[in-house]
Structure formats: C-alpha cells, structure tokens
Amino acid sequence: MSxxxxxxxxxxxxxxxxxxxxxxxxxxxxxxxxxxxxxxSCTVDSVISFNNLKLYPRLQSLLGKKFFRYFKVNLKRPCPxxxxxxxxxxxxxxxxxxxxxxxxxxxxxxxxxxxxxxxxNKYSAETQAGEACEEEYxxxxxxxxxxxxxxxxFKNWTAYDDAQDNFCELDDELxxxxxxxxxxxxxxxxxxxxGASAQRIWSTIYNENCFQPRTSYSGYRxxxxxxxxxxxxxxxxxxxxxxxxxxxxxxxxxYLNQAxxxxxxxxWGPNKEEFKRRFDPETTLxxxxxxxxxxYFTFLVELRxxxxxxxxxxxxxxxxxxxxxxNEVRSAVTDLLEVVRSFPEHFDESRLFQGDPQQATKLKDxxxxxxxxxxxxxxxxGCDKCKLWGKLQVQGMGTAxxxxxxxxxxxxxxxxxxxxxxxxxxxxxxIVTLFNAVGRLSSSIKEVNTFRQLLR
Length: 456
Known about the structure:
Layout: H1 5-17, H2 44-62, H3 66-69, E1 70-73, H4 105-119, H5 125-131, H6 148-165, E2 179-182, H7 196-209, H8 231-253, E3 255-257, E4 267-269, H9 272-279, H10 288-308, H11 310-314, H12 323-342, H13 357-377, H14 384-404, H15 428-454
Antiparallel strand pairs: 1-2, 3-4
Helix pairs in contact: 2-12, 2-15, 7-13, 8-9, 8-10, 8-15, 10-12, 10-14, 10-15, 13-14, 14-15
C-alpha cells in the first residue's frame, strides 16, 4: 500500500480534471486547449473543472427525466434549398418514434396549449373579436369576416413578428408530421452518413451563412483569418465551429468499432483513429486544435443563456403529470441553475452590437438571418438520426441566442423572467432543446478528456 494514499487520490483527480498535463507527440490535437478561451475571460482549465465536477453529473441525471427526454420534432419537412437527393438507408440512420400512449399526458397537454397560443395570434379574427366590445345595436356591430387572402396575410405578419425574436425557424406546432422521439432510445452516435451529401450540409453552412471569408476542402472554414473580423463575426463563426466540433466528438465517442481480427460482434465506443482524422493538425491543415478550442467557447455562450434565464426557468412547472418526478425535476433544475449561477466568468453578451446604432442593428439582423438559415439547412440532412440531433442542437443554440438578446438590458447581470411573458416566452420545445444542447456540449468536453487519456 502507498505511504501517501491521499496524495495518490489528489494526483488522479488532477489528471482527470486538468488533462493538459499530458505531453508528447500524441498531444498535438490538444495543443491549443490551454490559456484563455478566445473572446472570453476564463481559461480552458476552469471550464473543464467546472463542467466535469459540477455540471456534467447533474445534467446527465436531469436529461434522463421524462420532461427532457421526449422531443417533438418534424423529420419530414422538405429541404428548402435543394431537392432531397441522398437519403441514408442504413439502419443506424433510422429514428424510432414514440407511440402516443408512451407520452405522458402532461407533456401532450403542454404542447397542445403551446400550439394553440402560437397559432392564435394578435392578428387573428378570434383575438380581435375577444378584445372588441359587443354592441347592442346592429349599426354598431363590426364585420368580423376574414377572407382567405387576409388570413394568409395574418400568418405572414405573425411569422415576421416571430422572426424578430427567434434565431431559429421552429417546426409548425400544428403539423401532422410532428412526432415525439425518445432521445434516450435514439442516442447521437456515428451512423455512417458521410460523403457528398453530408459535406454539402456543412459547406453550405460555412460558405453561405458564416462571416468567415476563407474555406478549406473539408467543409470546415479556416480559423486562421479571424484576426481581421469584428467581434460579432468571430462570435458567430466560433459558435458554429464549436457546435460542429461537439457533433464530431460525439460521432468519434460513439463509433461502431469492429471486433479485432473480424471475430465477434461490433461494439459502440470511442474510436481513436476517427478522432485523429477529424482533429489532428496533420489531417486538418492545422485547424483541428483550434476547432477543439471553439467547443469551449460555444459551451460558454449556452451556459450564459441558462444563467440569464434562471428567474424564468425557476417559475416553470416542468409538468408531465407524474407528481413525484415533477417535484424531483423542479428541485434538480433549481440545483443545476444555482451551480450555473456560481460560475464566476460568464460570457458577456453586452460587448456585442455596440458602436454606431445603425450598423449594430444591421449586423444583428444579419446575425439572426444567418442563424435562421442554418436552422433551415438542418431539414436538408439525409440521415434521420443526424437530422434529429442537428435540429435539436441548432434549436438549442437558437434558444440561447434568443435569451441572450431578450429583456430590457443585456450583460452579465441581466435576466429574463416569467413576469414578462407578454414580451418573452419559451415554448416547451425551446426549453427541452436548450437543456439538451448544453448537455451535448457538456458531454463533448468530458469526452475530449477521454480521448486525451486514450491518446497518451
């Protein structure tokens, strides 16, 4: 037995939390995971420590609860940009939908109410009638008939209003193609979806919807030219790059590895060679390490959104109809949000869109338009499971951006709360995607640690 058992434990914890102590040739993928996170004040090490010890365990427990595991999504929406020319036929691309009786009644009730509220807008005849007085005299009666043409115009006005607040194009709540999916039964992992169709998705995102002017063959954009970009453009690029990195980390972590020598069943687990292919500087024109670092930036953006929405989320019921579990979830959310609040160096969104008001407004509109386009591109993914997790994580990021730029003020001390539901609201699907999106980023940070140990 060691003469210093406590010291041994401390050393193990240090290695687990602070993997940059690993050195050598195999550490080249991780050479940039040190120092401050770009455009933030905190360090990579502080993010790793906070996530792995405090946030990750709580999130994993919470996301297994019914309120967060059932996601209502339309996987049949057509691609608005090109014909759907490549559908993945492999079994791992398939998504298992939920049967109606599997969904808690409370969740179905919340979603029906959300659909009603989102489609009975301020321009509708019902709303106008409800606000008008019923006159006793025929001459004072209003003509409440609405033509089909006028009704369509009302829908367009409502869509325009939504576009001013939302950074994502959400699925139509009344669509017959919406289906519930159990996220725990359809985990994000490698499906084999690749080639021209998959590359087309990311090249369209980077080439047509990012501010970064330079590109590389892989679909990723070069991060070496961000020096000449303004802060807002760098934030947009790094946010998308970090999201892309997170998805790639998951595909490497949950890869179908064939048995050695071809004998025995294939098993799901981390694949070191796939990770190196995606992040080694030699196979990524030197860009892999910076892409990994952008993961921590995206995490901080979404973490700040949770902190800002804390007063609002504390008033949510998280209702499923199961009283015991609902109470447990509310308690767990409160505990999680207090942990999020305790992080000392949150991303400061007040630094964005400053300076000349007209230029700032124009840049913010471009920021929103680009991100809404990216949310629409997710409907072009040819693999249903990839589309499921792509839509969820992009919507979660869109919800985070909506939160960051809502409220009377923006900045480290600003919040949004449930007392302002007339001007700010989150649908259940936005709450579900936000928490799951943070969960995906949190898992990626944890899994990068795993690869650092595997590649020692």
